[in-house]
Amino acid sequence: MLTAEAPGPADGRLPPATRTILLQGDSALAKRQEILNYFHRTFDLYERLFDCISDERGFYAKAIPLRHPLIFYFGHTAAFFINKLLADGQISERIDAAIEAQVAIGVDEMSWDDLDDRNYVWPTIAALRAYRAEVRERVSRQILSMPLSLPIRWDSPAWVILMGIEHERIHLETSSVLIRQLPLEWVRDDPSWPACDRARQQVSSVPANRLLPVSGGEVVLGKRDATYGWDNEYGERRVTLAPFEASAMLVSNAEYFTFAAADGYLDRRWWSDEGWAWRTFAGATRPTFWVGDIEEPGSLKLRLMTREVSMPWDWPVEVNALEAQAFCRWKSSITGRSVQLPSEAEWAALRNRVAGDQPDWETEPGNINLSRWASSCPVDMFAQGDGFFDIVGNVWQWTSTPISGLGGFAVHPRYDDFSTPTFDGKHDLIKGGSWISTGNLALASARYAFRRHFFQHAGLRYVVSSYKEPALENPYETDEQVCQYLDFHYGDEHFGVPNFPRALSEIAMDFCPEGGRALDIGCAVGRASLELARRFTHVDAVDFSARFIDVAQQLVARESYRYTLPLEGELVDYHEARLSRLGLGADEASRVHFSQGDALNLKPKYTGYDLILAANLIDRLREPAQFLAEIGRRIKPGGVLVLTSPYTWLESFTPRANWLGGVRENGEAVTTYRALQLALADCFEEAAPPRDVPFVIRETARKHQHTLAQLTVWRRRA
């Protein structure tokens, strides 16, 4: 019999961090219990982290401008379960639609992220605690009832559950960094999150770092263990390394102090252009978590998650990638050697010296998995592999490698925006884990990356090496679906059929006066949105796919975007979408606001429109009747709703019971057009007869889809 754990230990201790679970096993019943326990411990541990906030302002004030306030993240991880289970068709009802819309998106500071506080009315802490309790119960029931066969694979219902669990463990770590950046008076020093009590208080007492040789050879990157992994971990890349040297220890506060005390933050020579721009903007003269004046090193303190302590000089320094790079350039100058951050492959060569991996450890080999402290510890405490220390744990280690997909990379359909928005050359990999890295984060195969000016519990190890990471430059988009939509929106016309997004926008604009506001819901890569901006002063472009939104935003920023199209077999052709060729430019782009969003659960800010265009959307929604019932309140009286669809109802998108038409009721045929008339009758009147609008989608050089979408126009009654 399966049993549900009670929320959290009653004695004040933290729930056990729990290692990640294996995907295979001998008993589905035992694996189900294991998943249930893993979920409960993760959920409870995350809530205990937020108990460290003692002042309500700590929930609602932004710790840093480029992140949401912590109240968002408190609800975000719970809503993630519901949103993903809905998308996967495992559940059919929301718990709280308003909460699940407000806290859905906001992991990275993408240019299209909505970080404007004016667009949010945050829930109360009590409301979110109640919401989380409901999610805990709902997900528990799903774990107990879902189909489960072993091993667990990408398409298994259990994979989505594990996705939610590991996602929450990511935010356990990133939220702890935000708590660390709150004013100290807003947090409590919780004894269940103990800091390490071992530290050398004098710079001179810290052991000197040294370089150790590492043999070269081939390193194979890519996940091979049988645990949950994110899509960017799968695939393979082989790198042949020449012998190199690596620092035995992480760079300590004492070692880094020599750089800061030598005016390293004020000397332009050591900084990249990006680094100097950040340093100047931030006014940085020392690491962010150092408190005090470096001119008086004896008075310096270190900010931990919930307290300040006298500077532990033998703990690892925690800096962003730009600071780590500057330190290496300075170190290279004073040593005359090629000092740099390790590449992902070089770190992997070091990791091969540490036996085993997290699921199999009898005891953690270092300060990782919350197994010891809620802080860093001395850099010479945990020996790992022939003279090295902290290859695993203590703090993350910045690398010189921008994240990208390994050979054979494929997007997981249930989280299409986890990896690909970071494949931009601006997000560098961190490796090795920190003291609060648990679950997937503590695995050797983990591949997490952050913008170079972001802070995590991350520091550095340096290498002396001639290896240079190949520049991350794939100027042509190769994702098949994205490329097909880019060509559909911005490519050549085929067989004399006019460009579909442009044709729709021109038809729609005939029914609206110049100026005003428009919403393009299901905008894909944005051509219709840009066309509407010729007439409207404000266009919201919303799509469920983060990949589409990110590509659209990059196209607007660059004014062009390159992509490939299948020619035949393995052969591809190279194309470029260029706005100027279409008579579109900065003027139109400035009026379009791209956002990721769910058509069935839009945020309250999406309202007051003169036009809403929903192109080929309704037959791809789980509940199209719900969309039609709610969309009217977002349009002004006299405003226009334009719908198009080929009415290709498929159970893979819409449960058969939710099809609007294409069915028989009481023996009579029900068309979708008739269903639209009935569904919209209360709020709308038809503004024009329906018409068919053709479109062509190119699949290969000699294969195209030719489709007719029915276009209907509805004017909201005054």
User: Helices and strands: which structural class?
Assistant: alpha+beta
Mean pLDDT: 92
Give the % helix: 25-40%
Count of alpha/pi helices: 17
Question: How far is it from the N-terminal to the C-terminal residue, by CA?
Answer: 59 Å
CATH C-level label of the largest domain: Alpha Beta
Count of discrete structural domains: 3
Task: Report the CATH topology name of the largest domain.
Answer: paralog of FGE (formylglycine-generating enzyme)
Which strand-content bin applies to the residues?
Answer: 15-25%
Annotation, overall tally of beta strands: 24
Uncertain regions spanning at least 5 consecutive residues: 107-113
Largest sheet: 7 strands, mixed
What overall geometry do the principal axes of the alpha carbons give?
A: globular
Radius of gyration: 27 Å
Q: Looking at this structure, what is the CATH superfamily of the largest domain?
A: paralog of FGE (formylglycine-generating enzyme)
Question: Which sequence of strands runs across the widest sheet?
Answer: 18-15-14-19-20-24-23
